[in-house]
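fyi for ur records
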Amino acid sequence: MEDPMAEPKPGRTRGTGFPVISLPEATKIIREAGTYGKTFTDSALAAYAGHQTANSGAWMAKRAALKDWGLITGSATDSFVLTERALRIALPTSPPDAQAAQLEAFQSVDLFMNMVRDLAIGVELAMPTIGNRAVTSFGVAIASKDRFVRSFVESAVAVGLAEQVAADKVKLLAASIASASDDAHGDLLVEEYTPLSNPKPIRQTVPVVNQTWAFNGGAISFQISTDRPLSAEAFGAIGPVVNAISGLVGYLDTPPGADSASGDVSQ
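which gave:
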């Protein structure tokens, strides 16, 4: 296995980075470690991840992924500390809070968020298609394509943004979430025009779901704008709405006079 911490070999360029282990895998490590505290040496944390030594390339890759997910801070020469997000996952006050923390972790990975916005919603997507898109549009290294697909798909399913419909196919349930960069820079504020002497700032809303279905002679648009990330429960409620709209498009796309009972619906 190639050491993810090593410098690129001459003649090669490093691809766009991403967490090399999925969010469920990272969650398993954090929950194992969180049982015993929140501050760990490199060797101890490696042991909770199932490694005999902290010097292996496999552990270094996992350690980097835990940082990418925003679950640990610190360094191998000092110690690692579980973040507030990690503690909400490892020691949740409620299942919804743990799910929300996992969603925040997913949102913190810009590459994954960009993929969610780029891919089609509500249709079955083949794993190779997702991998090829990651390489051609987002700079993922060809050698890392399969690893990217596994991490992205397993993580998206875990936070309720996708469902696995077959061994090699997945379907996205929501198309757009407020970008992690927005969250990283805090709440966006804009000045509201008002005749009062002390205008008060309001939160700027951004579209977190924005999908359009075209049909013969028209289109249906579905958009949700909010000033905060949607909860896992809200994402779960979006799926049936999207499916209902997709069914409606089928009826609207039927040519006038066509026998709808025959199932001849133009796509």
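The chain has ten helices and ten strands. thats all i got for now
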